[in-house]
Amino acid sequence: MIKIGDKLPAGSLHEFIEVEGEGCSLGPNAFDIATVTAGKKIAIFALPGAFTPTCSAQHVPGYVAHAEEFKAAGVDEIWCVSVNDAFVMGAWGREQQTAGKVRMMADGSADFTKATGLTLDLVARGMGLRSQRYSMLVVDGVVRTLNIEAPGKFEVSDAATLLAQAKAA
Questions:
Q1: For residue 22, what are the domain limits?
Q2: Are 26 and 6 within 8 A, CB to CB?
Q3: Other residues' Cβ atoms within 10 Å of the Cβ of residue 77
């Protein structure tokens, strides 16, 4: 399992781009994790699934609401990572009004999630392999803080907790 001081695993995440620009075409685009984290401070939070109750009602809205405070604390980007495809993450981002605030990063095959060791088996619920709920502050690709939720909980991966950690970093 990934821990504080570890580099993020190699690989890529996908993001649905609605406006062409800066080398990105419309639709799903792959982003190399090492490249897009280099020289940046990134707040990453992960959750079990798009459009799920806690994720939609509390987790994503908290980061959207605090986006400007994260920027003021020196955070370059906020990422929401979920084991969903880029089309689903793009649709969820539109619904949650994340544009310009939170990048909705798809881990469609759970490769990133498996590499971090933060998987959640929801096969019995018909959802397959998903991500645990967590948050982390990453600086230049290295994990500086890591907040992993206990199963079924939403207590330490919220925006307020990670924002306090970003301000203290």
A1: 12-168
A2: no
A3: 19
CB 156 within 8 A of CB 147: yes
Please list the active-site residues.
Answer: 55
- Please choose, from the candidates 105, 157, 131, 111, the residue with its C-alpha nearest in 3D space to the C-alpha of residue 49: 131
Please count the structural domains in the chain.
Answer: 1
Q: How many residues does the chain have?
A: 169
Say if residues 83 and 131 touch (Cβ distance below 8 Å): yes
Give 101-142 pLDDT, tens digit per residue: 999 999 999 999 999 999 999 988 878 899 999 999 999 999
CATH label of the domain that carries residue 142: 3.40.30.10
Cα distance between residue 119 and residue 71, in whole Å: 29
**Chain Cα centroid distance, residue 79:** 4
What is the pTM (predicted TM-score) of this model? 0.94
DSSP annotation of 155 reads: S
DSSP state of 156: S
Q: What is the DSSP letter of 6?
A: P
Q: pLDDT tens digit string along 59-89?
A: 999 999 999 999 999 999 999 999 999 999 9
In a domain, 6, yes or no: no
